[in-house]
Structures are given as C-alpha cells and as structure tokens.
C-alpha cells in the first residue's frame, strides 16, 4: 500500500522555487499512517514525466500523488501526460466549468477564456474533485493497481485539496496509528547507526532516524527520532516504548549517554 509523490515543475528542479509542498505532504502522510516511499521532482517534460509515472505504476504503487502542471500555460501538461499514459483522451469537465461560472457569477452565455478551459480539462475516465480554494480541480484516475491523484501546485490550493479529498482517502485505506519520540545520544553517526539497525531488526515496525545536523552547538548530544506504526494505538505506543528501552540499553552498554527530549528542555 505504498504512496509515491511527484512534484512537477522545471522551476523546482532548477531550484528557482523551493518544494515546500513535498515537505508538507510527507508530514501529513506520516501522521495519517500512510507509507510514503519515494518523493520525486520532475521537469515539465512530456517524455520524462511519462517514464517516471509509468515506472511508479509498474512498481504497483497503490497511491500516486502529483502536484503541479494543472495550470493554463503550455508547460502545464500533467493532464495530457496522464491521459496518454492510461490510454484515454483529455476532455473538458462540464462540472468544473459550471463551478467556474457559479463562483464568478457568469451566465451560460458568457464566454470562457482558453486558460479557464484548459484548467477544466481532465482525462476522460477521471473522477473530478472540485478545488475549494482555486480553479484547477483535484483529478483522480485508476490504472492497473494504482490510483493517480493530481493536485494543483500553489501551496494554498494544494493544502485545501489534500485536506478535503486526499486525507480521507489515506485514512480510509491505511488506518494506521503513529507514535513518535525523540531521544538524545552523545555518539557520532557511525557509532550509533549499528545500534539503530539492531533496534529496527528487533522492532521492524519502528523506524529510527539520527539528525547529525541538529547536534547541539558546542555539545555532543545528537537527536534520534523513533517512529512506531501500527493499526492499533496502544500497540503503537507499546512497541515504541520497547524500542526506546532497547535502544537505551544498547547505548548505555557502549558507555555513552542517553536522554529523552523532555530532559533536554
């Protein structure tokens, strides 16, 4: 039931704009209990986008999330790529057009410009989920074993679409409980890594991550996060506690110091 995320936009790949969307989505997926296994940035290139998305489908990714490429300019080609990939054609969504007219208090006879029409264009077989904060809708299609969901790129719109349409889907599919803790060890990364691996081997549903860059300035204590995942909240908390205890035992056996986050404040 893996999730993969594709951030689409040449400006992201070139570093002209920071991909804050991916950081925010990754946090949300973790908190909701989903398994995000890959985050990829793609240029606005038809062939490159097709190749990357097709590879994700061939990996049998359950949920493929995309941000960007739904705007009115020629380099916005997410809909065209996905339609081609799943073997269908792009069409104008009448429901989205009606939503445009309603929001802008337009009559049926008022003409729509090309930009609005393009943002209302979706793959023919898509489920269209309206955007509560903007114009380009959230678009969902199913192909083989994957569900592909396209979100607009502007962060305010992306967050509104995610919370309205995608968050409930992840909760329904995964229903996982997450428990987290941060501890501190006075060890170098090379020293602590083998101990972290031992903990994860004994407790495979607990993930450990050391943050070398967050080591205290002028100090020796390095933070290590533990993330426990389970379908049951109590089980998640229990296995987190067991993992912390085992990690502490290993660190102390190495002659090093171990402390909890609240002991650092």
Describe the structure.
- The protein has 265 residues and is an alpha/beta fold.
- It has two domains: 2-174, Molybdenum Cofactor Biosythetic Enzyme, Chain A (3-Layer(aba) Sandwich); 177-264, EIF_2_alpha (Alpha-Beta Plaits, 2-Layer Sandwich).
- It is built from ten helices and twelve strands.
- The strands form three sheets. The protein has a six-stranded mixed β-sheet, with helices on both faces. A four-stranded antiparallel β-sheet has the order 10-11-9-12.
- Strand 6 (127-129) and strand 7 form a beta hairpin.
- Helix 2 (20-32) packs parallel to helix 7 and helix 3 (46-58) crosses helix 4.
- The radius of gyration is 22 Å and the shape is elongated.
- The two termini are 38 Å apart.
Q: What share of residues are in beta strands?
A: 25-35%
Global shape:
elongated
- How many domains make up the coordinates? 2
**Structural class based on helices, strands and sheet pairing:** alpha/beta
CATH fold call of the largest domain: Molybdenum Cofactor Biosythetic Enzyme, Chain A
How many angstroms separate the termini?
A: 38 Å
Q: Please trace the helix and strand order, writing H or E for each element.
A: EHHEHEHEHHEEEEHEHEEHEH
Task: Please give the count of helices.
Answer: 10
